[in-house]
Amino acid sequence: MQDPRLKEFMKEFTLSDSQLKEVYNRFGNEIRKGLNKDTHAKADTKCFITYVQDLPNGDERGKFLALDLGGTNFRVLLVTLKGHHDATIVSNTYPIPQEILVGTGEQLFDHIAKCLDDFVKAQQVGESYLPLGFTFSFPCVQLGLKKSMLVRWTKGFQCSNTENEDVGRLLKEAIARRGNTEIEVLALLNDTTGTLMSCAHRNANCRIGLIVGTGCNACYVENVDCVDLLEPELKRTKKKVIINVEWGAFGDSGLLEFVRTDYDRIVDKMSPNIGQQLYEKMISGMYLGELVRLALHKATKENLMFLRSANKNKILEVLNKEVGCFKTEMLSRIEADTFPDFTNTKNILKELFGSEKVNIEDCQKLRFMCECVAQRAANLVAVGLAGLVNRINEPNVVIGVDGSVYKHHPKFDAYMRVTMRKFVTPGIKFDIMLSEDGSGRGAALVAAVASRQK
Ligand code: GLC
Fold it and tell me: What pLDDT sits at residue 127?
């Protein structure tokens, strides 16, 4: 892409190494604040204790139910752990109607319990005792494996009467209302914890779980001595505990203002959780497409795009009015395109604007804009990850990853690795592995560990 004016226009999305270094330093500081009891309340990254203190050893066995709420879909799973690091999974996806997403907590949990009941009947497993792990991917203060108080909703959920409530209790009560007495809720966990557990099940060096999907967050294995708020008796028996960083909230106290753009501010203002999850809003799938839409609209208005298009007014109108029209999935398709034909990009432009003739130069420019937005997201994830890898400070650290952006974007992994190499302490080797159904297998593993302790 050769247009110097567009390059200049997109410059604010390009973070220099010194800006990234500053983000890295501020992030490390927030982690320390989150873990320390005197500064915890003021930290952006709350570093919640998960109460998961054992990684799987691969020998876990048994049949478990798992629920997965917090991404694009709600799922119910039946996981059979077979020992020898092996598991089989059967699952079903259930839509959550919009009116339930913004309805009452009771409606949401009744809906979940109904889907669970339908699934158990369809799988014909309802006769025997069924331990259940619930992957609930929102910020929660855990008071134990089975007790988890919702701090606030993220990612477009907004159910009333649920904040500060125990999600484990809400689920248990809804299951009891349906009369499924054979099901016991044994563990509540975040999707990052599920991802870490499921990857650790296959690779003993896994220490970090990362999600780059609808939302973005990470968890990691910390030494109990660094976790002020962990009960002393839990420090005596075990040396480690998984910490759910809730890093999406990094920046909520203003620490990222030096890199945020006006586009980020608009995205935030249009969201139901204004002023919250500011790091996440620069990275995750719920927001990347919108960032491109806003930048593309401005670039078109300023005559940097679609210069020769007969359709320019229509393009401006669509970009201005149709919030959400540019989907994050389009970034992935555009970056997967091959030169010089730009088949995906052309199709996307046709889908969006009904343009018949598409100019190759516009395709190149749009691709460049998508690259800038995705690269910034990957760079921000990379400095956060490097911060965790360096904290863990073991010779080999494996990171388990899940989420639609990481899985479907053809370059996200490569972008991340380049920047991580700049920030990870020399001498520490890191690797990134794709998680296989972390929310399901991971939930079963946490439940398995819990039932062992029981
Ligand atoms: C949001 C949630 C967090 C979750 C992440 C990824 O950031 O607050 O709990 O892990 O999305 O789904």
Answer: 80
User: Which residue, judged by its Cα, is nearest atom 8 of ligand 1?
Assistant: 138
Cα–ligand 1 centroid distance for 277 (angstroms): 9
Strands across the sheet containing 48-49: 48-49, 240-244, 216-223, 206-212, 396-402, 429-434
126 CA → ligand 1 middle, Å:
31
What confidence score (pLDDT) does residue 1 get? Answer: 67
Residues 6+ apart with CB under 8 A from 289: 324, 326, 327, 328, 329, 330, 331
User: How much is the pLDDT for 90?
Assistant: 96
Let me know if 191 is a catalytic residue. yes
The pick from 74, 190, 210 for probing ligand 1's pocket by mutation, whose C-beta has the most ligand atoms within 8 angstroms, reads: 190
- Give residue limits of the domains in the chain: 50-202+436-448
DSSP-assigned beta bridge partners for residue 241: 222
Measured in Å, residue 296 CA sits from the centre of ligand 1 at 28
Q: For ligand 1, atom 11, name the residue with the nearest CA.
A: 215
Which pLDDT does position 454 carry in this prediction? Answer: 62
CATH 3.30.420.40 fits 50-202+436-448, yes or no: yes
Residue 68: active-site member: no
| Mean pLDDT per 10-residue segment, the chain (454 residues) | 92 98 98 98 98 92 94 90 92 92 93 96 88 96 96 92 96 95 95 96 96 97 98 95 98 98 98 96 98 98 92 94 96 92 94 88 96 98 98 98 97 98 98 92 92 71
Residue from 158, 188, 211 to probe ligand 1 pocket by mutation (most atoms less than 8 Å from CB): 211
The reported pLDDT for the residue numbered 340 is 82
